[in-house]
């Protein structure tokens, strides 16, 4: 069921919000509220712990009900601020002093981005200010706005580009300014031509921003693939894009930056695609960060019955939710609900590798997944890393998707990497 | 609300595509060849195809049970081996020898290596090679195609008792050849005629299948069409037949500059080259998976086939060429690992 044509709709406020402190990559935020404290929508409730960390803002005006351990998206329980919004409140957003962005120094700009609590909204949840803070000795020539939806089913970027076009353009110009790029390219897959046209119409002829349409082919939205498609540069494993004069950000993140930064507002809500065969009212919903999964599923009309699978993120790289008690975090771009029929089709017998070579032809990094899989079965994890570039694999899932023998290749690789990491640490 | 949710690792969607589906389609693509074999050679062909296939299935069944894998007949790979093996045998091949060939193909060619996916050699060719050396006379005794009473009588050698020599069928063959309008029967295949009598059979007859030989090798055209079907369903790697056929054609034509009188088209349409290129060499398990390796593998098969056919002691070389290339496969693959993304690109700053 397609959701790309469904406009972004606001979801009802959940009676309770769960805000884990470790929603982003880096050090978890530090709570600055106490139980029973009243907070305003937009107020900082947890501060950043160092540079690679971001603050968390209250997504609604209400009262802090608890600070406790709750199940997290990654599995283990994690410290979570539980906020109960006041139903009768006007929910006006509290903002910082608005500033003239052009008057800010580079360091001030980065600081203000961090104050927004902004992270990569495409799913990575990497602190955005850290991405824009390019090391001093590197010159950036191109800023790339990633408008390729990172996975099938997800349509948040598509809708954001269409509906918040001006914010996206403003955010792009701000990012260019921050990293010192003279050119920006918005890369969009050709199944979102309406979005590409919408942006083009809004750009003046002398704009340093260019829209480039690309083939729709997963994983086009992966940074390396996008840079290759747009600039024909291959960034090897272990290298950063800024070493090649490039900074990349997801269009959703850039749009949020364009909205939040001038107002001095924190990130308190996001757009989430809710889709899949197990949902009655699929769509692109904007909702407060911390909305519990259970509440979201009720609103979207999904009765969780026997043998359903709930995926946080996309179908190729997302993880299955282990509990309905988890909540939408800053990095949640989509929720997919697969019902029984959809699951049975996937649960097939695993055969031996027949060496059909399909996995090699789809691997975006030209790895040899067939050989890696064979070595994994033999537990030759060292050889996988040393001879067959295991560590380059970014787990896009293409090899597993095409495998006629139904071999869980990506899972083998994850295990191999984890074991290698342990060995190296020891 | 108590609910059960499934936990699985990503990716959560799969291409609707499976080993069974691929194998079923290969069987489907082989059936027209079997039908043509029965049409051309009659009852004996039908009996041989059935016996060899049943032998393969039975052997697979026994070994899969012994190895604790449960029943692996469902993956259809043993059926493919059976059909392919039968198609490489002469029409009058004694049934008991066919049974042995089937057993050897699966037992020695596949089960011994650990079953589907682990075999180094194409199992059907292992069975074929075994009977070639064990029963050389029977494996090279050819009978005429399209004999008049092929649907009412069996070829006398078909029912040879186990461990007995097949009866001499020279007389029967002479009788069976009476009234055949196409290329007069002379007891030798097109390849043997080329080699020993320096006579090149008309390529068009070879292409269409109006000559005799092994069960399923006679109609190059039909084999080609059945192979194309698999290629278009994306269940066969087109690069392998492309490499073999183009390699064999170019090499043969090139050799005519050095005194050879064999045209390239003859090379392509005679003997087992078409069947080998389309259905044997393309066995996924035995062929390399690296892009460059696939081409090398194909060219190697073409080279060995042409060399054996033109200069070797044997009339036919496809079987040995493929078995040799199967063995060389891991080495080829090792040498042709693809260039990984980003390898060789250096840090550059466009502004400098």
Written account of the structure:
The complex is a heterodimer of chains A (426) and B (352). In chain A, strand 15 and strand 16 form a beta hairpin. In chain A, the strands form 4 sheets. A 6-stranded mixed sheet of chain A has the order 1-14-13-17-15-16. Chain A has a 4-stranded antiparallel sheet with strand order 2-8-7-4, with no helix packed on it. In chain A, strands 11-10-9-12 form a 4-stranded parallel sheet, sandwiched between helices. With 426 residues, chain A is an alpha/beta fold. Chain B is mostly helical and 352 residues long. Chain B has a single domain, classed as Orthogonal Bundle (Ammonium transporter fold). Chain B is 55% helix and 1% strand. Chain B is built from 15 helices and 1 strand. The longest helix of chain B has 24 residues. Chains A and B meet through strand 15, strand 16, helix 9, helix 13 and helix 14 of A and strand 1 and helix 1 of B. Strand 15 of chain A pairs parallel with strand 1 of chain B, so a sheet runs across the interface.
Quick summary of this structure?
By secondary structure, chain A is an alpha/beta fold.
Arithmetic mean pLDDT of chain A: 91
CATH topology of chain B: Ammonium transporter fold
Query: Major beta sheet of chain B, specifics?
Result: none
SSE order of chain B: EHHHHHHHHHHHHHHH
């Amino acid at each position: 069921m397609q959701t790309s044509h469904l406009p972004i709709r606001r979801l009802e406020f959940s009676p309770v919000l769960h805000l884990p402190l470790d929603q982003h990559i880096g050090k978890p935020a530090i709570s600055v509220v106490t139980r029973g404290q009243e907070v305003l929508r937009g107020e900082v409730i947890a501060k950043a712990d160092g540079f690679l960390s971001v603050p968390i803002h209250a997504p609604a005006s209400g009262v802090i009900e608890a600070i406790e351990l709750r199940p997290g998206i990654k599995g283990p329980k994690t410290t979570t601020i539980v906020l109960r919004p006041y139903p009768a409140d006007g929910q006006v957003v509290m903002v910082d002093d608005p500033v003239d962005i052009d008057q800010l120094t580079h360091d001030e700009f980065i600081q203000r981005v961090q104050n927004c609590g902004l992270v990569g909204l495409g799913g990575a949840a990497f602190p955005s200010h850290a991405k824009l803070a390019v090391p001093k000795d590197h010159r950036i020539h191109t800023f790339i706005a990633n408008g390729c939806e990172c996975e099938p089913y997800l349509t948040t970027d598509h809708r954001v580009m269409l509906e918040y076009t001006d914010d996206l353009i403003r955010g792009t110009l701000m990012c260019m300014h921050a990293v010192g790029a003279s050119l920006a390219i918005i890369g969009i897959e050709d199944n979102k031509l309406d979005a590409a046209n919408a942006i083009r119409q809004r750009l003046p002829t002398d704009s340093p921003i260019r829209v480039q349409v690309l083939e729709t082919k997963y994983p086009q939205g992966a940074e390396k693939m996008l840079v290759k498609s747009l600039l024909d540069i291959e960034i090897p494993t272990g290298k950063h894009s800024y070493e090649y004069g490039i900074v990349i950000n997801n269009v959703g993140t850039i749009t949020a930056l364009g909205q939040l930064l001038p107002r001095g507002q924190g990130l308190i809500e996001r757009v989430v695609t809710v889709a899949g065969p197990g949902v009655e009212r699929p769509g692109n919903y904007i909702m407060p960060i911390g909305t519990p999964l259970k509440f979201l599923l009720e609103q979207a009309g999904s009765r969780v019955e026997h043998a359903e699978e709930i995926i946080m993120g996309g179908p190729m790289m997302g993880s299955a939710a282990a509990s309905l008690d988890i909540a939408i975090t800053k990095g949640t771009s989509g929720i997919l609900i697969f019902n029984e029929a959809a699951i049975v089709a996937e649960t097939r017998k695993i055969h031996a590798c027949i060496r059909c070579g399909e996995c090699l032809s789809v691997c975006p990094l030209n790895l040899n997944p067939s050989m890696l899989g064979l070595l994994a079965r033999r537990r030759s994890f060292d050889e996988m890393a040393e001879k067959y570039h295991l560590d380059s694999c970014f787990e896009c899932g293409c090899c597993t998707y095409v495998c006629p023998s139904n071999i869980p290749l990506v899972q083998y690789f994850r295990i191999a990497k984890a074991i290698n990491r342990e060995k190296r640490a020891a | 609300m108590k609910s059960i949710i499934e936990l699985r690792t990503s990716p959560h969607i799969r291409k609707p595509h499976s080993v069974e589906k691929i194998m079923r389609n290969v069987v489907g693509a082989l059936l027209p060849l079997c039908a043509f074999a029965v049409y051309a050679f009659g009852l004996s062909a039908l009996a041989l195809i059935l016996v060899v296939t049943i032998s393969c299935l039975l052997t697979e069944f026994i070994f899969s049970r012994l190895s604790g894998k449960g029943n692996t007949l469902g993956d259809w790979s043993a059926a493919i081996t059976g059909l392919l093996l039968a198609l490489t045998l002469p029409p009058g091949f004694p049934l008991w020898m066919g049974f042995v060939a089937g057993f050897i193909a699966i037992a020695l060619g596949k089960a011994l290596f650990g079953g589907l996916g682990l075999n180094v050699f194409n199992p059907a060719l292992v069975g074929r090679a075994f009977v070639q050396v064990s029963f050389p006379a029977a494996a090279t005794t050819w009978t005429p195609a399209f004999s008049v009473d092929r649907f009412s009588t069996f070829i006398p050698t078909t029912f040879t008792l186990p461990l007995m020599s097949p009866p001499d069928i020279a007389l029967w063959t002479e009788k069976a050849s009476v009234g055949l309008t196409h290329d007069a029967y002379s007891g030798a295949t097109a390849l043997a005629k080329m080699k020993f009598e320096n006579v090149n059979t008309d390529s068009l007859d070879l292409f269409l299948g109006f000559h005799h030989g092994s069960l399923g090798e006679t109609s190059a055209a039909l084999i080609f069409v059945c192979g194309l079907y698999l290629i278009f369903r994306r269940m066969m790697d087109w690069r392998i037949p492309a490499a073999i056929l183009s390699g064999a054609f170019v090499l043969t034509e090139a050799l005519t500059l050095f005194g050879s009188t064999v045209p390239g088209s003859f090379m392509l349409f005679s003997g087992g080259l078409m069947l080998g290129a389309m259905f044997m060499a393309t066995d996924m398990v035995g062929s390399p998976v690296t892009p460059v390796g696939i081409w090398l593998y194909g060219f190697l098969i073409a080279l060995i086939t042409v060399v054996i056919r033109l200069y070797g002691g044997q009339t036919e070389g496809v079987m040995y060429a493929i078995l040799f290339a199967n063995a060389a496969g891991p080495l080829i693959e090792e040498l042709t690992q693809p260039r990984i993304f980003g390898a060789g690109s250096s840090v550059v700053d466009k502004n400098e």
